[in-house]
Design brief:
- Helix content is 14%, strand content 53%.
- It has helices spanning 2-15, 74-77, 89-92, and strands spanning 27-36, 39-49, 54-66, 78-86, 98-107, 110-120, 125-137, 151-159.
- A hairpin with a 4-residue loop joins strand 6 (110-120) and strand 7.
- It starts with a helix and ends with a strand.
Length: 161
Amino acid sequence: MKKIFTIVLLGALFMVNAQAFKGKGDAKLGIGATVQNGGTGIMASTDFGLGENISIGVLASYLLGGSQIQDVSSDYRFDVKARINANLGSVLNVSPKFDLYPGLNLGLKNFGGHLGARYFFTTGFGVFTEFSVPFAKYDSEAISKYNNGSSFNIGASFNLD
């Protein structure tokens, strides 16, 4: 009886209709780690679906450690970015659980682009990874500072709707 129950339970878990991006009204939360040249920290992001393949959102990050981080003011440790994504999961038609999203971001330190991917295991839980690069930097003093270069983010993704 235990074996049958275990098999049914596992089957039910794999048959859950997970979807990475549903379109208009979709809401996602991402929580994870950020890694960049000389520093590591935490990040959180939200994305809200505006249409079938477009979403907007916000990403915030704070650096906790890195080379000579004690000499860096909190102005350079913290960053917030508004972002827009083109959610291409349905266009690529790989799997409804997978979403690839290139986009643009406008932050406190720079204007740049990002490329991310999400994969949902269940309707509420998945994983994501993103890579972002700056196109234009606002503060010439910040060129060699944190949160003003390329970064890599990885973490867990959650459905909010």
